[in-house]
C-alpha cells in the first residue's frame, strides 16, 4: 500500500530526528519488545488456526471413520482428475515451477482448513433444520440461497486462507500466476478431505466386500467429477490473490473480486448440479450418472477454458517482456493463446 507521509516528514530534508514525531524505528528496549510481541501474536494466531484445524480433522477421524484402507483407496481414486488438473497448472507456470515443499504445505493447509467450512456448513444446516427450512419448495429455495451466501463464500475463503497463511509470504511466490498454482493445490487439498468424508459416510457399516466395492465405486465416481471444480474455483481466487500481492495499494478489492468470482462459480455449480442432471435424465431417458457426467464436463470445461485463457494472457505478456535471448528460453505458446 502506498505510504502516506505526515506533513512534517514530507517537508523535512532529513535534517531532523523525527523519531516518534513523524517517523518510527526500533531504538529503545520497549520498541524491540513491541516488535517481538507483535510478531509473536501474529505467529501465534497462525499457529492457533492450524492447531484448531488439526483438532477438527482429528474429531472427523474419530467420529467419521475416515481412516480405513478402503476409504483411503477410494479417496485416492476420486482425487485423480483433480490432481491431474492441478499438476497441469503447476507445469504450465511460465515463470518458474513452484517448489514442492510449498506445494505440499499448501495442500496440507487446504486439507486442514476444509474443517472450518465443514463446521460452518453443518452449523447452518442444523440451524435451518431446527426451524423447518430444509424441506419442500421453501427448503429448495433456502438451500440455493445457502449455496450463494454460505457454502460458496466460506469454502473459497478457507481455501484462499490456505494460500495466504504460508505460500503467499514466501519469496518463491514471485509472480501473479503463482497464485493460481497455489490456489489450485489448496483446492486439491480441500477436495481430498471432502471426498474422503463423503466416501466414508457412504461406505460406513458396509462389511460385505462386493457391496463395499459397489457402494464405494459409485460414490468415488461421483466425487471424481466434483474434485476438478474445487481446483478451478480456487485457482481463480488464487490468481487474484497473486495480482493483489503485486498491487498492494488495491489489494483488498482485488482479493474480494477473486473471491466473488470463485464463490459465484461454485454456488452456481452447486445449485445446478442437483437440477440439470435430473431434468436431462428424465427428459432424455439416459442414466442419471451419464447426465451428471455431461453436465460436469460442460460446466467445468467452460470455466476451465476461461481460466486457461486468463493464464494464457499472462503467459503471452511474460513471453513478450522476456524476449531477450540472454534471459533464458521463452515458453512455447499453447493452443489457448492463438
Q: What is this structure, in a nutshell?
A:
The protein is mainly alpha-helical and 338 residues long. It has helices at residues 7-11, 29-64, 69-78, 80-91, 100-130, 136-164, 176-203, 209-245, 251-273, 276-284, 288-321. The protein is globular, with a radius of gyration of 24 Å.
Oligomer: single chain
Report the major sheet: none
Number of helices: 11
Percent of residues in helices comes to over 70%
- Determine the structural class based on helices, strands and strand pairing: mainly alpha
- Give the termini separation: 36 Å
- Radius of gyration from the CA trace? 24 Å
Residues in β-strands, percent: under 5%
Average pLDDT metric: 88
Order of helices and strands: HHHHHHHHHHH
Shape: globular
Low-confidence stretches: 328-338
Number of extended strands = 0
Walk me through this protein's architecture.
Helix 2 crosses helix 5 (100-130) and helix 3 (69-78) crosses helix 7. The protein has 338 residues and is mainly α. Among the domains are: 25-64; 68-262, no CATH class. 75% of the residues lie in helices and 0% in strands. It contains eleven helices and no strands. The chain is globular and about 85 Å long.
SSE order and pairing:
Blueprint: H1 7-11, H2 29-64, H3 69-78, H4 80-91, H5 100-130, H6 136-164, H7 176-203, H8 209-245, H9 251-273, H10 276-284, H11 288-321
Helix pairs in contact: 2-5, 3-7, 3-8, 4-7, 4-8, 5-6, 5-7, 6-7, 6-8, 6-9, 7-8, 8-9, 8-11, 10-11
Sum up the structure in keywords.
338 residues; mainly alpha; 11 helices; globular; disordered C terminus
Amino acid at each position: 500500500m502506498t505510504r502516506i507521509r505526515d506533513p512534517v516528514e514530507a517537508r523535512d530534508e532529513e535534517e531532523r530526528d523525527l523519531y516518534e514525531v513523524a517517523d518510527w524505528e526500533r531504538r529503545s528496549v520497549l520498541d524491540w519488545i513491541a516488535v517481538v510481541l507483535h510478531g509473536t501474536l501474529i505467529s501465534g494466531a497462525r499457529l492457533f488456526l492450524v492447531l484448531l484445524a488439526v483438532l477438527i480433522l482429528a474429531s472427523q477421524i474419530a467420529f467419521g471413520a475416515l481412516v480405513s484402507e478402503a476409504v483411503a483407496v477410494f479417496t485416492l481414486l476420486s482425487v485423480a482428475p483433480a490432481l491431474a488438473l492441478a499438476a497441469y497448472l503447476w507445469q504450465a507456470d511460465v515463470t518458474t515451477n513452484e517448489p514442492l515443499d510449498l506445494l505440499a504445505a499448501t495442500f496440507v493447509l487446504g486439507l486442514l482448513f476444509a474443517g472450518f467450512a465443514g463446521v460452518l456448513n453443518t452449523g447452518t444446516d442444523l440451524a435451518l433444520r431446527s426451524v423447518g427450512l430444509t424441506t419442500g419448495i421453501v427448503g429448495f429455495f433456502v438451500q440455493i440461497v445457502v449455496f450463494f451466501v454460505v457454502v460458496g463464500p466460506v469454502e473459497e475463503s478457507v481455501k484462499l486462507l490456505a494460500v495466504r497463511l504460508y505460500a503467499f509470504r514466501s519469496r518463491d511466490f514471485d509472480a501473479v500466476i503463482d497464485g493460481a498454482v497455489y490456489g489450485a493445490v489448496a483446492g486439491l487439498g480441500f477436495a481430498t478431505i471432502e471426498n474422503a468424508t463423503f466416501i466414508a459416510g457412504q461406505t460406513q457399516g458396509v462389511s460385505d466386500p462386493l457391496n463395499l466395492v459397489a457402494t464405494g465405486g459409485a460414490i468415488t465416481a461421483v466425487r471424481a467429477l466434483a474434485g476438478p471444480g474445487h481446483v478451478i474455483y480456487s485457482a481463480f481466487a488464487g490468481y487474484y490473490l497473486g495480482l493483489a500481492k503485486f498491487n498492494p495499494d488495491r489489494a483488498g478489492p482485488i482479493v474480494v473480486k477473486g473471491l466473488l468470482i470463485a464463490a459465484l462459480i461454485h454456488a452456481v455449480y452447486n445449485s445446478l448440479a442437483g437440477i440439470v442432471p435430473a431434468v436431462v435424465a428424465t427428459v432424455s431417458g439416459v442414466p442419471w450418472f451419464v447426465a451428471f457426467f455431461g453436465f460436469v464436463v460442460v460446466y467445468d470445461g467452460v470455466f476451465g477454458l476461461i481460466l486457461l485463457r486468463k493464464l494464457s494472457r499472462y503467459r503471452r505478456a511474460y513471453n513478450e517482456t522476456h524476449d531477450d535471448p540472454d534471459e533464458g528460453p521463452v515458453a512455447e505458446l499453447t493452443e489457448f493463446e492463438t
